[in-house]
């Protein structure tokens, strides 16, 4: 039974009852309710426990500024903590639970903290728990964290889906109160593309919470009709349940749309939330204002609410939150609440802090008085009233409606550095002159507090922003809203300022006494303004009190810096679809399916998935597979997918000269039909990348890069082409995706290849020697390119075919007698051959360090990196240079990353002679082998050193050898 | 007769995509595009090619501006490289297999694209004849607006290696967009 639901009025649909539960109790609300309004309708005032003292709390507000009524919605992995009951839309089956309690909500065992409040003031943890120091991390902090807090995460992966999307408009209107609706009508009627974003699920803002008329009809009805007109305009997009939470550079606004939090059973595929990036060159901020509470003794009991929130519950939700109400106000707005409560059947006492305020309207009225204290265990039951002469008496009250005036919700105006300014006449900060580019502010957000001013202001600002005519504003109330700054009632009782963080007036006084007087210091010392509500109802009263204490004005005291987000945004919403295996796109080679079918395990190489090794039946581990692949390749023929190498087509009359300037060595002299190894330097002379270039025609080269650097090298080359040497006739195209490419290696490589090229293609050494390249046709007429290149040291070819044939070529190579090998075997064979790779090209090494000083040494033309390579430091004789390593004991294992030391030297930085860069177990040699950078380099060949790795506990005697372990004369690869 | 036949395989093969890589939902349709040849064209000798942000048909070829002085040319698959070189001059490089063509169309197509890309696909900003190279969920895409086909229609070319992820992303965005209708 909804005991506190009014029989008529409101925007709830009484024909649509919705069952829901709170802490296991089943209730019923109506469509159009929030969880808070539905609980209030059912007589529930107690909705949570406070952060530190575990004091009973109910809703303070009826909107997104709510500090108290935070609940956990749902269960299991879907449990969503810290949901504001004042925002959560009711749906059938909603299940919510209170938070931060031990025991039941009514009998929270941790409420004992409240008895200890004298010891738990602001910053208590800085002054206590000092001894013993070791207890802090292990005992004190965990205890404090357990005793205090908000809701808890489920600890399970979030099962919901989120997405990021983009929207574009001429005008973004933020907020759909009177100013926002008029702004949208102005722009919409003018044919502009409009997005109207509203955090609430009903458009209209305060118009839905008031009892006055607009345009001769109930304000909510006028708002509904305006919304209907906007909905009918094809150029207007209404985004309800969408909070604009941040303003960013480039006129981009962040907006969080809650798609499914109001649905018991969301349709399949609907993400829970969408994080919109709204691209809006113009925006109207019509975010309204936030009512301020007044600090008085025990002002946090359930049943004590903001006066405007009370009107929302009465007028919008048809809920009477109390029958014996005290309205405590310092502004005219509180009187509206008194009238609406009386009209709803409540007995009302008005306490106005301003002497002589208000007319005689038949209420029991105390002018110049104050509410001093309240009583009631789980809900306010009595108030202590102070009269102008100082006398006090007690009155029965089950509702206290408080209004200390309103503060514009100007947070978004500050996100790009804007500073608010103080307006004395309304005792509030308003947006300053510096606004985010394109932003206009209208309505209560800029301090216009009458409905007519909001309506006219919204239309005028939109018209000004877009250069169109303003929509005509309807008739509406235009009464001056008197307000006096009134922050607190002085007294001995605890008076709460920030209810979410349990920060009291005494805490602010303590901060003042201890010197934390600047707004930012006060915030961090007391925690005022932190957590989920970011002090939306607390900041200004706290500043007011600090100003009183320091004797300065409020603008002199300052305000905190408002940063995005305006409202809590789940990290998951920022991530959108980019999570798990979809964190980034995955690149697959054309042979991926074939490799998968043939037992490949894959490894991520950048975005690519590459076959790491191919498991065969009896193999127990990866080493078995890799050793076999090496042995079978060196004993017969193996093939490896090298599609992932970057491939860049270079065309144009100046191609050769262009490559000469980019590479350390020369390409302009390379004959057509030949390949050459190339080394590319960075501007600072360090090696950037290596690869090969094949001259396919007089003005046509094909350059390859490493897999890891493909993008960077192409970008570097494009920069050189477009910016450094635009006069050169060169065209660059990445053809990495166009060609599937395989390395076919081993003494039987020619034999295997002969089986798949068209008969008649001469593969003999005389016609197609080492480093030859050219076009070929494979059996069945498949066009191909052949390159006589070897990374393994074997007789080898690289075969490229259009990507659609990549799968088929893998099948054909296997059928023709080659075994597939993965990148691990590829790595073993390149270490055996002493070829540098990523571990050696690590951004610290020079060509000389790699033993490649002779490459391009006689070159007469300049190239990128040449001058800086000549720096003294890069020419030093004691720079570590590439060597090979073998363990003295062949059964010992080398470790990449280990240091090299003289035998007997103490292991420390000063004695380190270098490091091991790559290691592999060589099945060919039957031992671990390695490549290393060693001071003195190859001059130390034959010396014995220590390979030391303190982290992994290795200390192995090694011998310095040539880095070329296999076929140093190169007879095999030229064979 | 080949001893070891080397057959082509589509990037979205029927054995893995028995229902096809595309998807049709109320208001939006996504499918692989028709077979076509594709080349990259730079420094053409022909004049009057579409400028950045546009594409145009010319003698049976679709010319899509990629960057100043660079175009993709779509045309008949057979002999596309030679035909393009003959018609437009300049440097021509075949990339037929480097990209996978898709089509997205229907009234909901812009809503789908909004979930993939930051560009404005409104009629005034991306009309028929517009073209762009843009990332969609981190994957590079060349998109161009075709003549309407029961709503806005778009041709998309996306790199082959990420085509499966791209198709999945588009289908996911379609389901999301359609679930709101």
Quick tags:
heterodimer, A: 975 residues, alpha+beta, Ubiquitin-like (UB roll), FAD/NAD(P)-binding domain, 7 domains, 24 helices, 52 strands, B: 181 residues, Gyrase A, domain 2, 2 domains, six-stranded antiparallel β-sheet, five-stranded antiparallel β-sheet, 35% strand
Biggest interface goes to: A-B, 60 and 50 residues
What is the overall silhouette of chain B? globular
CATH architecture classification of the largest domain in chain A: 3-Layer(bba) Sandwich
Quaternary structure of the protein: heterodimer
Cα-based radius of gyration of chain A, to the nearest Å: 38 Å
Largest sheet of chain B: 6 strands, antiparallel
* Global outline of chain A: elongated
Find the structural class of chain B using helix and strand composition.
Answer: alpha+beta
Average of per-residue pLDDT values of chain B: 95
User: Please, what is the average pLDDT of chain A?
Assistant: 95
**Percent helix of chain B:** 10-25%
Q: Count of helical segments of chain B?
A: 3
CATH topology of the largest domain in chain A: FAD/NAD(P)-binding domain
**Roughly how many Å apart are the termini of chain A?**
94 Å
By DSSP (H or I, 4+ residues per run), the number of helices of chain A equals 24
The CATH class of the largest domain in chain B turns out to be Alpha Beta
Give the C-alpha Rg of chain B. Answer: 17 Å
CATH architecture of the largest domain in chain B: 2-Layer Sandwich
β-sheet strand percentage of chain A: 25-35%
Question: Largest sheet of chain A, described in full?
Answer: 6 strands, mixed
